[in-house]
Amino acid sequence: METFVLHSHSSTKKKGIGSNRMKKKTLGLLAAVLSVAVLAGCGAKDTGDGTGAATDAGTESTALKDMDVDKYVTLGEYKGLEVSVDTVEVDEDEWDSLVNNVYYENITAENGGIMDRAVETGDTVNIDYEGKKDGVAFDGGTAQGYDLTIGSGNFIAGFEDGLIGVMPGETVDLDLTFPENYGNSDLAGQAVVFTVTVNYIQPAQDGEFSDEVISNFGIDGVTNEEELRQYAYDYLNENAQQNYETNVQQAVMDAFMANNTFTSVPEALVQKYSDAAESSITSMASAYGVDGDTFTQYYYGQDLASFLATYSEEAAKQDIALQAVANKENLNISDEELDQMLQDRATAAGYDTIEEYIGETSREDYREYFLYDKVLDYLVENAQITNN
Length: 388
Prior knowledge:
Number of strands: 8
Largest sheet: 4 strands, antiparallel
Radius of gyration: 27 Å
CATH superfamily of the largest domain: Trigger factor, C-terminal domain
Distance between the termini: 49 Å
Shape: elongated
Number of helices: 10
């Protein structure tokens, strides 16, 4: 059955491969969820008195620096942890694929696009289009810079055929009708008009790359195929190294936690992480148009309540143990370090001031977050790591 994919956004060309290469030091998807949640505003509001975890009268504090963590955990050996980790290398096929993707995603009408012949079946064309019903643009029926392969059957009957014979740079109106069984009842069986501009025809993806075209991509240090391949390799190699470092951290953390004995875990701390994770997951699920249960079932294989019950306690135990090591080894985050770390994050996120960046979240929550990263680094530095 023919389908039509509605779009509500523009497809824009990207010069580079990716803009966010920030090293992710927090371990695992659980830790990522919790850290994002806690540092997104679920922590206590900063009181300015240096105590950090401001609480209501009679409410148990969840600031680990204020707790006697030794009554909750007996640390096992945490220096000289022996772990074995697989090395991570750049995959040749992935490398070739990335070079190909970067090349063709940066083709434009002015640089490398085919402009001197009409559209044929089998061509991939870059188009702008706007769909209107009764003269009014309908939701999701507009896109710019969309790549469509003619003959793919991805759009409703008549759309792709209507572009055959059109020259790049030309605009045509296509009088079409949505199928009666189309998923959107407002459009099912309705007559519409699509105004379509063919921007250019993509050159065949035959593995042949033009140095002249590459030199016009505007990627720093990339002017020919050899440099493009090196650029792609460097990106993949950096990702591979980051993945390796994450695997090392995970292995060290697993070994560390396996050596510890817990007597109990403060309920208030578990609840703090549970609330933070629920807020974060609900927000992420909403962005995908699903509820929390659907989201956690897909990613974690369990419903939201089960996920929160299991992993919030694990996260609490992990942080208790890390705080215990920090206490024993006199590890801390000074005010100067905290200010610099927050300033770096604020700048990277495009904020003018630290205050704008942290919002209602306590500086002490950030200090705790950064401290546990420092403790993890300490554990890794003192571990005995074998590469497979």
